[in-house]
Amino acid sequence: LEAMTNLRIPADVTWEILVCDNNSTDQTKQIVEEMMNRLPVRYLFETTQGKSHALNHIINQATGDWIIYTDDDVLVEPDWIEAHCKAVARYPDATIFGGQVLPWLQKPARGQAAYLLKTFPWVNAVLTFDKDTPIINKGGHMPYGNNMAVRTDVLREQHFDDTSTMKGSQRGAEDTELVERLLQLGHQGWLITDSKLNHYIPPNRVGFKWWCKWHIGAGQYWIKEKGPTPTPRWGLRWWLWKLSFIRICQTLVRCRPGTRRRAYECIADMFMHIGYARASDSFNGTLKTQLPQEF
Fold first, then answer.
1. pLDDT the model gives residue 3
2. Are 183 and 135 in contact (CB under 8 A)?
């Protein structure tokens, strides 16, 4: 909120900030109230736990023509809203916009951590690009929910999906699911270079251990697309052991200069299948099952 006091707002734009407290027990309400004399901010409270419920509460309370979503772990640039306003004028047929999400680290990443952050930026919700780019379904970059604008009337027709929250997962995916659905319905979107913010990445989410946990979480989402795996024979998933052995062998073969990325992709595939198996073990007929988080 402090960073938002420096925002440059076009003279013909009326705006407000909606902060939705998703049933927390911290000082969110007090902090928002302290900023009310410095920002046009409004406090909302959503009792139903889950990010999609909070996002949909914002839709129901919004009064503007557009909603620009962000999170509590970012610092926006002074021209953040101005960039979205210019994009609305530049691409009048678009109903979705996304901006750049830059990494904000306590200290520079080095070695393996730096390589993973650069090569697999989506694991840390980092998104950078050099020019304005159309948003393409299943074929390009998708905007992240911490820097995404959607026209309000569209959101009122197509809410965030709050029926398939996978508790305990390492991924959110509400934003991606919504954008994919809107694109399938014929809506247009653009990624705009001028809209930038800095996304805080804590030390425990930098490096190989977090990278593996993220891919386990990504594999958990396969249960939504594919359904659970077949019931294991004698309590053992032989296919998973076989696949893991193959992926380890492929990693050893490819772990040399020039093939490093392919080696990591093999490891990622193995951990995604592990996540898929874990989700299948916990599946109880709905997608609101408690999934294991530990790695």
1. 93
2. yes
Distance between CA atoms of residues 66 and 150, nearest Å:
6
Is residue 155 within 8 Å of 61, Cβ to Cβ?
no
pLDDT higher at 167 or 5: 5
Decide the pairing of beta strands 41-45 and 66-69. unpaired
**185, 188, 194, 200 alpha-carbon torsion, rounded to 10°:** 10
CA atoms within 13 A on the CB side of 98: 28
Those residues with Cβ within 8 angstroms of residue 292's Cβ, 6 or more apart along the chain or in another chain: 168, 278, 282
Which residue in 275, 96, 102 sits closest to 186, CA to CA? 96
* Helix (H) / strand (E) containing 40: none
How far is C-alpha 269 from the chain's CA centre?
20
Pair 166, 280: CB distance under 8 Å? no
- Which pair of structure tokens corresponds to residue 142? 């998708």
The alpha-helical segments, DSSP class H, found in the chain are 28-35, 51-61, 80-90, 111-119, 152-157, 174-184, 208-220, 222-226, 238-254, 260-282
What dihedral do alpha carbons 16, 162, 127, 3 form, nearest 10°? 30
Q: Would you place residue 235 in the very low, low, confident or very high pLDDT band (cuts 50, 70, 90)?
A: low
Degrees to nearest 5, angle at CA 122 with 252 and 248? 15
More confident residue, 162 or 41: 41
Mean pLDDT along residues 124-140: 89
